[in-house]
Amino acid sequence: MNDKTKFEIEFVIQSSPQLLYQYLATPSGLSEWFADNVNSRGELFLFIWDGTEEEAKLIKRKSDEFVRFAWEENEDSTYFEMRIIVDEITKDVSLFITDFAEEDEVDEAKMLWENQVSSLKQVLGSK
User: Fold this and answer.
1) What is the Cα–Cα distance from 83 to 21, expressed in whole angstroms?
2) Dihedral, 106, 109, 110, 114 alpha carbons, nearest 10
């Protein structure tokens, strides 16, 4: 088993942390930009893309700050996290993504996040 490589990317988002959090932590918010459809039963989230289903467990969250999910199929300690960072001085809001991918798939995974966050920005009316 190859160890996955951790990577982080940051996106500036023009939104309030409270509104942005709703799109990161709720099934209805996530289904507007992250997956075709999202359902949840407690801490278990079911993400659906083109008829394919993947389950993730919400393992950590702090309101208006971050959510961390772990894919159920992964047998390692990897996760993906979406963290909201507000600059103390400028009050700019950033979405900080932490994820893991096979070493030769990191660029592809980053591109996927860029596409997803681009959809999120459209939903939010952010540039």
Assistant:
1) 9
2) 170
Burial degree of 126 (CB within 10 A; 0-12, 13-18, 19+): middle
Alpha carbons 70 and 104: distance in angstroms, whole number? 21
> Mean pLDDT across the stretch 37-53?
95
Sign for the CA dihedral angle at 10, 99, 26, 53 comes to positive
DSSP state of 33: T
> Collapsing DSSP states into helix, strand and coil, what is residue 18?
helix
Q: Label residue 106 exposed, middle or buried (CB < 10 Å: 0-12, 13-18, 19+).
A: middle
pTM of the model: 0.93
Q: What share of the chain is helix, strand, coil (3-state, %, to 5)?
A: 30, 40, 30
Model pLDDT for residues 67-110, shown as the tens digit of each residue: 999 999 888 889 999 999 999 999 999 999 999 999 999 999 99
State the Cα–Cα distance between residues 112 and 106, nearest whole angstrom. Answer: 10
